[in-house]
Design goal:
By secondary structure, the protein is α+β, with helices and mostly antiparallel strands.
Length: 73
């Protein structure tokens, strides 16, 4: 599986990928802005992981065991 970068990892790679949008009173990032290029980088990794999971069969949905509750039809 390919690593999907976090927002702080994107920021460490450059402001062209992500940057703080607001700060706390202590000067720490509070919210982030992820650029289109940053979203594209994360999306590419997630798509690659999804294709790998589908090929391995681990992405197939399986009905979870019934809790004993009768479900409406």
């Amino acid at each position: 599986m390919k690593h999907v970068p976090t927002v702080s990892e994107l920021y460490a790679l450059g402001r062209h990928l992500a940057y703080p949008a607001s700060y706390t009173t202590k000067g720490e990032p509070s919210t982030w802005h992820v650029t289109d290029e940053g979203h594209a980088m994360m999306g590419a990794a997630m798509r690659e992981n999804a294709l790998e999971a589908r090929a391995a069969g681990s992405a197939d949905w399986v009905r979870p065991p019934n809790s004993g509750r009768v479900l409406p039809h």
